[in-house]
Amino acid sequence: MAMKRHHHQHPCSSLIFLVLPLLLQFYLGKSELQLNYYAESCPNAEEIIKQQVINLYNKHGNTAVSWVRNLFHDCIVKSCDASLLLETVIGVQSEQESDRSFGMRNFKYVKTIKDALEKECPSTVSCADIVALSARDGIVMLGGPRIEMKTGRKDSKGSYLTEVETNIPNHNDSIQSVLSRFQSIGIDTEGTVALLGAHSVGRVHCVNLVHRLYPTVDPTLNPDYAEYLKGRCPSPDPDPKAVLYARNDRETPMIIDNFYYKNLLKNKGLLLIDQQLASDPTTSPFVEKMAADNGYFQDQFARAVRLLSENNPLTGDEGEIRKDCRFVN
């Protein structure tokens, strides 16, 4: 009688399906960012960050603006890796020492957010993800769009002070150099015009705008607006430590909206770069479109912030999870 042969599946074959993605990840050296990265390792992570951002906003409204600025300053230099948060110690020169970081503040409150996360899930949530998610939640507090943001970034083990100057556009740079800088990290002209809409909130120190007022007023400035600015910045030689400043958007100074673009069309751009947006033929059609339609602006702003937050992240074993955002482990 012929024996029936049973074909048992080899126990290794199902293992291959499990191991293959891990091997690929190992050889490629990168795991991708993903939505809800902390769903299992720290399920409340995003909620904790959001609560902290709301609490800090209620105590110090301007923290929300700082979170948005942190994202830009961190992500445009090399990677979204929290290198910005490192303080100067032996072997590390803080990026915060650059002139480009002038006027940045509220770094101490990042520690408030990190401490709350460490209490819940020690050494689990990266400072780089805190930078990204606090910006996302800060944008909501400032009346901007709710952005779906991926997580899973790791923290850098070094800072890039020397690269800050070359990577962060200056307020006097030409529009073309700003566009090409953003292009190099994958943000198109439309997205760049939308990102500059973050100038709708916050303020500009007199140091950065007196050259448009003295010795003669820049002819591209609306004369009434120039008078307002002279009232805010009465000296051609302001003390950089004095908190003399002017707002880009006086109508809704704490809301991310399209008033910024409406003002540009009235020649009320605060910085040279703001005014060039409205006058340069590459960018002016987008300025007009955003001035006319706040929904379109917010959609483009959300898209650009998402692209910025995903610039060249460190993932897998390329970085670390800092215990204290101010120092490498």
Automatic annotation (TrEMBL):
One Pfam assignment: peroxidase
Keywords: Biological rhythms, Calcium, Disulfide bond, Glycoprotein, Heme, Hydrogen peroxide, Iron, Metal-binding, Oxidoreductase, Peroxidase, Secreted, Signal
InterPro entries linked to this entry: Haem_peroxidase, Haem_peroxidase_sf, Peroxidase_pln, Secretory_peroxidase
Subcellular location: Secreted
Ligand binding (Ca(2+) 1): 74, 77, 81, 83, 95
Gene Ontology BP terms: hydrogen peroxide catabolic process; response to oxidative stress; rhythmic process
EC number in record: 1.11.1.7
Note accompanying the cofactor annotation: Binds 2 calcium ions per subunit. Binds 1 heme b (iron(II)-protoporphyrin IX) group per subunit.
Record's catalysed reaction(s): 2 a phenolic donor + H2O2 = 2 a phenolic radical donor + 2 H2O
Residue positions binding substrate: 169
Cofactor(s) demanded: Ca(2+); heme b
Predominant subcellular localization, coarse grouping: secreted
Disulfide-linked positions: 42-121, 75-80, 127-325, 206-233
Signal peptide start-end: 1-29
Coiled-coil ranges per UniProt: none
Active site residues per record: 73 (proton acceptor)
Plant heme peroxidase family profile domain mapped to chain residues: 32-329
Enzyme class at the top of the EC tree: oxidoreductase
Reported function: Removal of H(2)O(2), oxidation of toxic reductants, biosynthesis and degradation of lignin, suberization, auxin catabolism, response to environmental stresses such as wounding, pathogen attack and oxidative stress. These functions might be dependent on each isozyme/isoform in each plant tissue.
The protein's name in its UniProt record: Peroxidase
